[in-house]
Amino acid sequence: MIPLSPTLLIATANAFVGLGVGRFGDALPALFRRECAPGAEDPGRAWDAAFVQHVGHWSHFDERSGTSSWPLPVTGDVAVLATFARGRSVLREDPRVGDIFLLASSLGGGFQRVGIILSAGDPGTATDGTRYRECVTIEGDSARDFSAAGGLVLRHRRKLSAARGDRFLRWSALDVRHVAAGDVGSAAEAMGLARLRASA
Amino acid sequence: MTGRAAVVTAVVTHDEQRQVYGWARAFAELATAWRPWLEARAQGLTSNRDLQEDLVQEALIALWELDPSRFSAADHGPVRARLTMRMAAVRKSDHRARGGGRRVQGAVGRAISPGLALHRGSLTSEGV
Questions:
Q1: Count of C-beta atoms within a 10 Å radius of residue A196
Q2: What stretch of H or E contains A117?
Q3: β-bridge mates for residue B20, sequence order
Q4: Non-local CB neighbours of A164 within 8 Å, separated by 6+ positions
Q5: Which of B28, B26, B27, B10 is nearest to B18 (CA)?
Q6: Tens of pLDDT along B6-52?
Q7: What's this model's pTM, rounded to 2 decimal places?
Q8: Which of B17, B26, B68 has the CB atom closest to A18's CB atom?
């Protein structure tokens, strides 16, 4: 079983940057959607969450056991991820490298997008006084102008803010070995981050 | 020719693999695309040219605060309604400062887009 590691997730996600609709038709999005909803893919549905599911699953896939240690539910639905994270108490207000960000809509109504945190910069303050962290992310089904359903996997620089409702899914805290030991994920998080720092 | 096309595709892909797209790009693209619409809205609210430009600038500030990287094309209707509300509020305060009366309410009502009716709950708190 492969230990949960932000390094593995980021490395796998990086390999998809620049790909999406237009390079190989819609084969890639279709693959992501099919994995989340076998036989019931909705071609019109955004695939940002499905992309996270795909890279999460395969970055933690162990060929010997034929299983993946990726701890999140198989879904292409942001709301399902949020509900799961709340139930497991892994929804945080400060980002860490490798977290999955849940982007709050500026119009209210919950989360509208997910992606992977590549780096979390220093805190800043917006013109309306809102505190934020400037993060570099990798997102599926995106576009250069940030519009949703853009069809590409791209890197973006975002201002993410807990005050605006954004949250960060600390999936590395779901490592079952540490839950059993009563130490919820801290060692697993440290391990993954140590690898990232060493490679920086 | 085929070889040349293949090279161009590879370069574009490489650029996308390295590029980090900043949130300001989302604002710049939307601000450029919506400017004519904002100007038309401002002209509908006032005939004062200086105030029209102020209203457009105020709407652009509102757009920046909303952060265009946080909504999709499907949300453009409600977002435009919010911008209109912001312009109308500025128009109203300017009218009051000049000693104007209640006639502004009608102008505000006409300026708000039809999309407002669908999002009345989230917009009334803005205060016009």
A1: 18
A2: strand A111-125
A3: A155
A4: A104, A106, A130, A132, B67, B70
A5: B10
A6: 555 555 567 778 888 888 888 998 999 999 999 999 999 999 999 99
A7: 0.76
A8: B17
User: In angstroms, rounded to a whole number, what is the distance separating the alpha carbons of residues A164 and A146?
Assistant: 18
Report the C-alpha gap between A117 and A159 in whole angstroms: 12
Phi, psi for residue B25 in degrees, rounded to 5: -60, -40
Q: Looking at this protein, which amino acid is placed at residue A147? A: S
Per the listing, tokens 């669908």 go with: B118
Residue A22 corresponds to which tokens in the numbers above? Answer: 């237009």
Quick check: helix, strand or coil at residue A116?
Answer: strand
* Residues 6 or more apart whose Cβ sits within 8 Å of residue B115: B77, B78, B80, B81
Q: A100 vs A164, B5, B20, B119, CA distance in Å? A: 16, 37, 18, 30
For chain B, list residues whose CB is within 8 angstroms of any CB belonging to chain A: 13-17, 19-23, 25-26, 29-30, 61, 64-75, 78-79, 119, 122
Cβ separation of B69 and A18 shorter than 8 Å?
Answer: no
Measured distance CA(B14)–CA(A28) in Å, rounded:
18
Is this complex's ipTM strictly greater than 0.85? no
**Cα B107 from Cα B121, distance rounded (Å):** 21
CB of A10 closer than 8 Å to CB of A97: yes
The Cα–Cα gap between A122 and A197 comes to 17
φ, ψ at B48 (rounded to 5°):
-75, 115
